[in-house]
Amino acid sequence: MVYVASKNGCFLAFGGGSVTLSELEEAAGKGIETKIFPEFLPDPINLDGKLAQGKTMAEICPIQTKYTKEI
Question: How many domains are contained in the chain?
Answer without folding.
Answer: 1
